Amino acid sequence: MQSPILQVALDVTELTRAQKIAEEALAGGADWIEIGTPLVKSEGMQAVRALRAQFPTTTLVADLKTADTGGMEVEMAAKAGANIVCVLANTDNAVIIDALRGASLYGVQIMADMMNVEDVVTRAKELADLGVQIINAHVGIDQQMEGKDPLDILDKLGDLPLEIAVAGGLNAETASKAAARGADIVIVGGSIIKAADVTKAARNVRDAIDHPAEGTTVKTSLDDTIRELLEQVSAPNVTDALYRKGAMSGLTVQYVPKKMIGKAVTVQTFGGDWSKPVQAIDECIPGDVLVISNDKRTDIAPWGELATRSAENKGVAGIIIDGAVRDWDDIVTLETPVYATGIQPNAGEPKGFGEINADISCCGQTVRPGDWLIGDQSGVVVIPRERAYEVARRAVEVQKTEVRIREEIRRGGTLGSLSQLLRWEKK
């Protein structure tokens, strides 16, 4: 079986960075270079021209996602040096036909992106009849964050009289599966272009698709998947994924012997009453995070060393207190992360005021039972339970981007120059 084409998508916004990444990707075995939509929107056709000048014999794909003026946009990309132009498959046939006319005139091919197409089989057959040369079984980045899988689209397409590409969050493992399922073109972006060593990452994907295997899929629960994703990232990565939201404030006291990740068991108490906080320990399962609101009082503590030891026995992942903690000398000898807004030796009385597993306000954030929390030395971030998988996926992408930028800084760049801050200042 002929090995699939490896297309590397340059989904960055800075041309200078894209050029270096493309050079390294080709050295690792990439066949085609895609001028990704973010790059096209940021740099325009100059991105295509620059990459054509840099790589005169490499197949260039302009991912315009054309939805109107088909012929005009194909002409622009073709004259700039593109060999293949991407249009949206769910646009009107008039646009597709006009794009194909332009492609015929200028000697380029049309790739139709199936993103957001409901009936992919019917639409793919229609596009094949119109003359489209390549169908892209694509799941967009925002859809990937919600768990949609491009391999599911690939499986539906079967045998069609045109080439099939697949794209959407692929890495070496999933690219290998795509090749095993018959993909002619495997499109990889983030797992290559965000790597510190782009050449090595491209080579890993190249080897994977040259020797395809389905492998075995181990099913894991959604909670386990979320936890595995959050293990890869930091609290700052997560708040970036939440568009700079979700961070708790005022946690000036913290003991973090390890990263804290888990689902919230919430407690509302008052005046240092430690009855409900202690009862809540028995409501926890291993991996939960105990989140306690002491009504912002730091003159009396609802938590101490004995409670911490009890929580540790239950496998609690961490404790957060909007209020004071006591027995700090002993707590810092244990293995459970503890965050608080103060230290105070006074304890309250166990009167039983308050509630377990109610919505609470804690350190400037609303926390509901089952919300996810991640805590490290930078602080604690709350993740809404209904968005936990999506946010965890987005945080991993943030972390990948930082890996690449960190490498470019190591090579002598600066954050300001790499990010082109002056260019992107809000006007």
UniProtKB/TrEMBL annotation:
Residues 5-205 form the Orotidine 5'-phosphate decarboxylase domain. Its EC number is 4.1.2.43. InterPro entries: Aldolase_TIM (IPR013785), Bifunct_HPS/DMK_prd (IPR017120), HPS/KGPDC (IPR041710), OMPdeCOase_dom (IPR001754), RibuloseP-bd_barrel (IPR011060), RraA/RraA-like (IPR005493), RraA/RraA-like_sf (IPR036704). Keywords: Carbohydrate metabolism, Lyase. Gene3D superfamilies: Aldolase class I, Ribonuclease E inhibitor RraA/RraA-like. GO terms for biological process: 'de novo' pyrimidine nucleobase biosynthetic process; L-ascorbic acid catabolic process. GO terms for molecular function: 3-dehydro-L-gulonate-6-phosphate decarboxylase activity; hexulose-6-phosphate synthase activity; orotidine-5'-phosphate decarboxylase activity. The keyword Thylakoid does not apply. The keyword Lyase applies. Pfam families: OMPdecase (PF00215), RraA-like (PF03737). It is an enzyme of class 4 (lyase). This is Hexulose-6-phosphate synthase.
